[in-house]
Amino acid sequence: MRAAIAGASGYAGGELLRLLLGHPEFEIGALTAASSAGSRLGAHQPHLPQLADRVLDDTTSATLAGHDVVFLALPHGHSAAVAASLGEETLVVDCGADHRLADPAAWQEFYGGEHAGTWPYGLPELPGQREVLRRATRIAVPGCYPTSVLLALSPAFAAGLAGHDVVVVAASGTSGAGRSLKPHLLGSEVMGSAGAYAVGGAHRHTPEMEQGLSAVAGAPVRVSFTPTLAPMSRGILATCSAPAAPGVTKESLRTAYEVALKSEPFVKLLPEGVWPATAMTYGANTAALQVTLDERAGRVVAVIAIDNLTKGTAGGAVQSVNIALGLPEELGLPLTGVAP
Amino acid sequence: MRAAIAGASGYAGGELLRLLLGHPEFEIGALTAASSAGSRLGAHQPHLPQLADRVLDDTTSATLAGHDVVFLALPHGHSAAVAASLGEETLVVDCGADHRLADPAAWQEFYGGEHAGTWPYGLPELPGQREVLRRATRIAVPGCYPTSVLLALSPAFAAGLAGHDVVVVAASGTSGAGRSLKPHLLGSEVMGSAGAYAVGGAHRHTPEMEQGLSAVAGAPVRVSFTPTLAPMSRGILATCSAPAAPGVTKESLRTAYEVALKSEPFVKLLPEGVWPATAMTYGANTAALQVTLDERAGRVVAVIAIDNLTKGTAGGAVQSVNIALGLPEELGLPLTGVAP
Amino acid sequence: MRAAIAGASGYAGGELLRLLLGHPEFEIGALTAASSAGSRLGAHQPHLPQLADRVLDDTTSATLAGHDVVFLALPHGHSAAVAASLGEETLVVDCGADHRLADPAAWQEFYGGEHAGTWPYGLPELPGQREVLRRATRIAVPGCYPTSVLLALSPAFAAGLAGHDVVVVAASGTSGAGRSLKPHLLGSEVMGSAGAYAVGGAHRHTPEMEQGLSAVAGAPVRVSFTPTLAPMSRGILATCSAPAAPGVTKESLRTAYEVALKSEPFVKLLPEGVWPATAMTYGANTAALQVTLDERAGRVVAVIAIDNLTKGTAGGAVQSVNIALGLPEELGLPLTGVAP
Amino acid sequence: MRAAIAGASGYAGGELLRLLLGHPEFEIGALTAASSAGSRLGAHQPHLPQLADRVLDDTTSATLAGHDVVFLALPHGHSAAVAASLGEETLVVDCGADHRLADPAAWQEFYGGEHAGTWPYGLPELPGQREVLRRATRIAVPGCYPTSVLLALSPAFAAGLAGHDVVVVAASGTSGAGRSLKPHLLGSEVMGSAGAYAVGGAHRHTPEMEQGLSAVAGAPVRVSFTPTLAPMSRGILATCSAPAAPGVTKESLRTAYEVALKSEPFVKLLPEGVWPATAMTYGANTAALQVTLDERAGRVVAVIAIDNLTKGTAGGAVQSVNIALGLPEELGLPLTGVAP
User: Where is this protein localized, as stated in its record (chains A, B, C, D) (predicted)?
Assistant: First the structure.
């Protein structure tokens, strides 16, 4: 099968290429870009020597036509128009935000502009979601932060063990901000420093978390979300807590997670007493998860580590594509991280 | 005045020396250590060339006698015995945990062993605390995490704007763990990785936070605290939230913080829309603080950055010492950080 | 084929496992350790979830017997004895230094103790070396620094374009020092800091570089080698220079490298004007190489980036094993790095 | 005395301000910028809370007039015009390159455009240079790399112990590249990665090194210089070597350095066997230096660590200003680094 990537010069595009190069069922088709069109891929992705001499095309209907799968790694607001030109015979995978939020008001509040509608949500680990993805021809890849939070708390909400007042504080590597030339993303600024941003409910991933958790809980869930930047290129470490439902014990909590995750290929519940670090998942499509009950504070606390570019973006995308195409879900996706 | 430092080969000891070298009222007296006794200070603190050839003594009553101030940077459980040999004419400053917790049961649960009682708590920014510290002859330096959390949330609790269900997630640089030779503190393990530890109410600083916030609130406050290690040597970034009291607005919240902090020399409320990063306070005795109301989630969210070794340990200690000795509170303490 | 790894709890062992898990011709046999014997592999290599529950054995003849390939990732001085118990039907691959140096005097000077003799040297890119490795039953994996230097300068020496006064300064990630608990390897010490060590000809890899370059040059080559530690977990960036032979031009130099490297699967000569960075090779078995003539100073300057654990150790080992076993040389070895 | 800073929003400007805030003889006058004029300093230098509300002026003759000292931290090519408007009653200190090179041809080759002539070179440690700087009204601050190399090798050349074929490989923190928005300076690119640039004699600091070393040696010295970027914000670690003169021994070499440096306040020759790391000098105006003889390779090898922004730029500038103004040379300059 041939895959095209729109936005191949960015970090998400580079990670998609890294994974597709290791995937036995794909060959790499068109690679497109915006301002980088006309340049060699090697100038942007020097870690992919096999593709160094491929020249980036403009992102147009013509260049993307004729592929089995088209991955869109574009700034938000651009996917709908590109997808409109591609028929249902093409699987279109949007790594951007355009087709995630079901609520037009939330879209309007957090992104602005016209609401593009929703596509099947590419988080197979959500209850019932694999069925939705099977034979899908459009996939909305979840945001990196929502991926982490939904994986961390879904088992608790699905089992009725957690209440609706969720607090999430997540540390992300800087690649989550993309390759944008902003002063606060310079190495000199971020090395040796951790900082917060978009505090107080301002981050665009907040309604996506609430949408997902509310669906699992069967009731509205509110999330207080604070994202932070940590001095690392990759990785998300999300600390997620919610009030414990009456009667929850450490044992019942762990059992609920063990049951929920026992067949999940990519979500790893760590041995008791071991807490996640992002190095466990560097470059892998895995999530490292741990949960406990804070009896003192009466809260369920789940901590999860993922690679924001792999499970949080490109790996999650390929996983959903595998399902949509009827391939084995794990095909071509790394279980091993790169450490130390 | 002559100052001795017990534990001069460690990170807290080194930071005390760095500050005392720049303090106009102190000369450096005895420097002691445990297993490093007999070695040159330069072997442990090569960033302090003025003291490179000083030889470390054993930590004994004799070596510590005859100083105006004795700083104890020792593992917990060792301070009481050392202090007992020093009369009230000596100001003894415990950078360890031994004399922070008023509740023997909390001490027993989190530290174990005999409870050593409390000393005046060295966080001058707490309401009324400067009075307590004036003419103190014993000072318990707060933990680094509690310093950050108490500074971040005290204004809200003092003004009655926050409820008791506090959630704190803090990222710390690795120097907070001291110079202990543990595999998870190796550079190869921590660079590029963020990880959680002591989750679920297990961290020893939890009861200290609750003690301090409860005193300010005038009612019991529970804290769900999750510490994480970020890939940096120094700095704490603490994200602290609590349910907003009824009727709180963004404006009333900011006003409360402005009023509370307007005379504080070291706690800087950032301009609206600017969020703290630890680089703002690197090597400085300052705290960079911001607060907002998450109206969606109904929580007050305060984020604070400090240098765990400066304001979080050695700088906070010197600040309290200045007060106790009747010196200007800011004397010898850096307001400027080192950045980028 | 079944592969055993002695020293599976260390960094080299972990990288071998990461690669073998992705290699289609190997299954993982015995995993052994010294002080970690009896513990779960997951406690040491949490990035390898597939093997988390494997228990480490003691490193004995019995546990290593019955494998097709045995990788030894042991401290130097231990390999000969282990190998002696394994017959020629087993391919034994020494990732340590024991069987690299042909000169007993050099061994004695730099390592001390008895000289164990040499095994076929596992750097296939050296002239004629693939022939040596074909059907080898013992392989000495080169040191990580010599791998980088020999790859960088061999084309120049083979073409007679460089003189014998070589100067190498290399920056290594801290994983090159292994998982040893030494103060200078703590994250707090290495983050934000670059430092030199073993300066002035003292590093053990120096005679190995000289041995390899002298063989290529057909004349004695001396190397002034300075290793440094950079604040990163992985990667070597080696800057290597030698006096330019009379008449060398930038063009003749580049042509010599193009010719020498045109069929090499893993050594990538970068486009003119692009200089290597270790991120290009993170987790990959590749080397990113560039060369130029410093006409001002009259020196050939080659800069190379490799991943010290992949091409510099485990990947280089697997590459040589592929050759020795008659498998395709590139089988199971990543060409793509993980970036950013 | 009043000091103005042109270029106050950049890294060099921020470091000048940090030092001047701690200097007892200076008050901060005009602060100017180019594109940032009109904004608050706090938006650019949040680590300097005392000056957060100062507004940046345009860089004009009018704003810079009426100061005792004017520091120029401007892109090269801009200093001469600004200085022309300031009379000899004002001490003008150029942190840029415009007035360092005596040879117009070298200026033309490496910078292009008109040669602005030379000013007294602000490296007091060079032989006789303190005399030159006393009562100077114009000072050319050395480049950061030349500062490190000249400090490292001058004692050897002054004593006739080293030959002219110098090889320097230096690792710099990213702040050396300033706050320019270039993709390769993004945190995502530099964290975890070391890379080379301007290899083969192309770096502009090369002729400055040669000029300085040749003057000390009394004969032409050629330098093969390779700069690299290390994943850290600050610091230069320079490894400098030159052929050993006949008859040099380790002892004679060390003695020469001890004699040369025994009265230097800021250049610290480390104890034998200890090698420099940049953390020793973080934020300090010091240089940490070590030297040895590589008997195997016949080269003198000196390794030096400095903070590129402190001793390498702003601290070196203030040190020269102290001399020019007749103040104690060490006034207001930190001897202590910030570590870990």
Answer: Cytoplasm
